Please model this.
Amino acid sequence: MNKNKNISMTVIRRLPKYYRCLEGILRSNVLRISSKELSEKIGFTASQIRQDLNCFGDFGQQGYGYKVKDLFNEISNILGLNTKRNIIIIGAGNLGQALSNYLYNAGLNFELCGIFDNNKDKIGHILDDIAILNIDDMPIFVKENKVDIATICTTSDNAQEVCDKIISNGIKCIWNYTQVDLKYDDNDVICENVHLIDSLMTLSYLLNE
Amino acid sequence: MNKNKNISMTVIRRLPKYYRCLEGILRSNVLRISSKELSEKIGFTASQIRQDLNCFGDFGQQGYGYKVKDLFNEISNILGLNTKRNIIIIGAGNLGQALSNYLYNAGLNFELCGIFDNNKDKIGHILDDIAILNIDDMPIFVKENKVDIATICTTSDNAQEVCDKIISNGIKCIWNYTQVDLKYDDNDVICENVHLIDSLMTLSYLLNE
Model:
């Protein structure tokens, strides 16, 4: 699918914005759009847009622009959004609950299939139609269910232990919400960090300038 | 403080990781560290570390390395973490509550001073020692209290309206947790987006590769 396998993470991280923007354009029944018009909507330059999209294929036509629906479908495909992905959440605190709600309402192909906690007061409670399970039952759950992505929303103290457990049970894809930079030897493991306080520090830097 | 004002956001976004890593090294009572040793701990190359830090000043000494405490203090300063910043949160749902807890426990110079919601069932409840206030009272609150950063944790539908309200009340710094790319004319406004679903889409892309 991809023309160039050495695509920078900076370009990749812009793709969801293209997805969201094109989704909005599609909803307003626009059939085709020039990179200049897309530029006005998305806030990247037309040249940047052409460069970005060119990493993945030849989508536009000189003098015609992009077919909105085709481009939306292509980006959806590139992002893997046409494949159903099963997700579990470990840690059913406020953040875990917030993410559960987000996934439930996102209308995307991500299906939350399990939520785990070690707190006896939480285990058994229902969250968005799913019962919170004991973290000790995670290995059995993972054997019986296909799990693509594990989300870590525990305290930082428990993060590495949970990470080890996830990987030893064969899950290769981690969405990490703790402040910890997780360590693992397996080169096949993919980890996407959402370090919330790092983001606040970045904002603090910009405010300090 | 900064040698070079044209520092890329990629470098800036690495600074919190330096901060966290140096904090850990300080805690283990290490007094000085070479860029090679720091490299092993933080996972950037020694050359990358020297380049990154060189954007902000001359911190290391050839053959000696970095004084850990001095470097930690410098980075803390560069990130503006030695200045107290007052934060408000708009939207007291699960995510707003999670962020309130994070700020309460982070032990940093960010002080949560107000939480707002439009839901009558939530208004008046206490969250981490702070009463949830009516969003309609935000303008008066901002007049009476110095507010540096406003965090938007509302639904996407309300995000732009809340953003307009924040800016019209003189707050220039926004920490945006909604999926919306906020629009504003004021060039002085700083906005840091934490688009959670964008991050999940990035993970989905990497999983799809």
Summary: Strands of chain B lie at 32-33, 66-67, 85-90, 110-117, 126-127, 130-134, 149-152, 173-176, 190-193. Chain B touches chain A through 50 residues (CB under 8 Å).
